Amino acid sequence: MAQPTTKKEFKEWCLRKLGKPVIEINVDQDQVDDRVEEALSYYWDYHFDGAERIYHKHELKGSYLTVANATGFAVNDTITGATSTGSAKIISIEDNNIYYKTLIDEDKPFQSGEDVTSTSQSTPTAINSIYKGLHEAGYITMPENIIGAVKVFDLGSNITAGSGMFNVQYQFVLNNLHDIVNYNLTHFYMSMQNLQFMEELLVGMTPIRYNRNVNKLHLDTKHSRLDIGTFVAVEAYKIVDPEVYQDVYKDRWLQNYASAKIKYQWGSNLTKFNGMTLPGNVQFNGEQILNDAREEIQRLEEDMITSYSLPVMDMIG
Known about the structure:
The chain has helices spanning 7-17, 29-46, 134-137, 168-175, 177-182, 186-202, 252-270, 286-308, and strands spanning 51-59, 63-67, 78-81, 87-94, 97-103, 115-118, 125-131, 139-141, 146-152, 208-211, 216-219, 231-239, 277-278, 282-283.
């Protein structure tokens, strides 16, 4: 039969590899689902084709309150919560969303359900929901399919930044135009490398903290220097979803590993009947199936590290 392209076909492919329908595979469909998900999880973590490098962009929108009625509220007003006594300066209003950058007092956050008023609007209106932006929450919420964040690109001015005539590269070319046109570009290239090295030493990269289980990217920098409306670009790794890219189910290592996982479940199920004699003096041998599967899993995981994973990068310094 053709290679599987859906999860259903993939499960059937693995079961046929184990002997179905010639012999009965004593596993429940839910158990098959669990073992396939377990195999995919290992594949995403270690296989060089299991994840892809991406550049995730996130727009800094600031925090906002979704209220029942934003009529009467105005930009630059101070909005105040009746219960929390929290307050903030309004920077924009879209429909019933009232945006602000930071709280005036960080120890007094707004509470969902409380009434709010402002300098221009004394009639209270209720908060339906609250969204906390980077400046208030201190982190960026990442998509669940992101398994690792490497770095964020420059967030502010530095040695080589600038626009127009204030850019370092522009000034260098302007003052060395004759040499650049008539000679090779070695000097220019080495100067740019030296500037980048100075930037790494004196400015440094923005430190980040990310945990895939909470999906929060913390930027350990002064958030006040980040303007609302700008974008943060994050170099990250995203899983290759087989529901989107069906060729994942055709991967030979994944097929073998998922089959071994199902075989292990099969043997584990049959070990519950060890010593039981069936009609015709037939006995289950689940222990043998379990041991064979264990050896296959160990061999495949060793193959993953030696043949299918990216090499560990050495750190010299």
